[in-house]
């Protein structure tokens, strides 16, 4: 079931292209590293969390397509709660939904986030983000309360790096772990049902060759991030230049605002007639738009209450969208799994205990 849901997600990411969709689904189902999750009863929680994670993400994608159907938004929130209570990092699906809405649906650049607060056309985006943020805060607080309002206390065997008194050892080892896990995805040569104790040897000095591998990994990630930001800027520049002339869009993912700015010339060339809003008795169009050619009509439905504020969305349609979603799927769920903040807290405690012991020792 989880593999089928992931294949459906891959189909959306790859614009229903059958070859990459099939390859992604088969690779997800048969990847050797997934045997760690299904080999033992305890690891089945990862599979269940993945199930709820994918259901939440797919529900939010449907909500972005049909903004007037709030049921998809609430299903997403319920599934995200189920994912988090199954496995803590399941809550990151809410962050992934926000990334999808910001960068894929609305194609915003990070430096343009402030415009969300004061522009009417982003009303639907504000609604979705507000639900995601409030739900994230509520779930984290509930989870923290269920843990007794304190961070979990791991045994030294569970996290040897966090108990090490040396700051350099903790830092070098922590930065190596994401690079090591990324390599396992590409080359699952080593598998283990429990990556605890010293299954991954600590990096105790700066001359360890694994530090070079870590440096290469983060340099590549930084370069990758810069390329994504440049691509987002290029898309924005293309959209702005197209709004003053002919439409450069080749898909239905143009905003209705952009189409209306182009005027009836674009729609006449598409439908050979005219474009109008469907008004109700109160003078509002309720997000309906109609274009007719004299014999038949095509009616569109959007999420806003005026023609100039609505988005026509049909999914991801370029490589940047696919890269953003794929990168987010790999990175966000991994962040809480690293126990980074817990390592810092425990590392500080270990350093304090070590210092106190040194002071009290004769």
From TrEMBL:
This is Protein O-mannosyl-transferase TMTC2. The gene is TMTC2. GO terms for biological process: protein O-linked glycosylation via mannose. The keyword Transmembrane helix applies. The keyword Iron-sulfur does not apply. Keywords: Membrane, Repeat, TPR repeat, Transmembrane, Transmembrane helix. It holds the Pfam family TMTC_DUF1736. One of its GO terms (molecular function) is mannosyltransferase activity. GO terms for cellular component: endoplasmic reticulum membrane. PANTHER family: PROTEIN O-MANNOSYL-TRANSFERASE TMTC2 (PTHR44216:SF3). Residues 149-221 form the DUF1736 domain. The chain crosses the membrane at residues 39-59, 71-86, 92-108, 129-147, 167-191, 212-229, 323-342. InterPro entries: TMTC_DUF1736 (IPR013618), TMTC_O-mannosyltransferase (IPR052384).
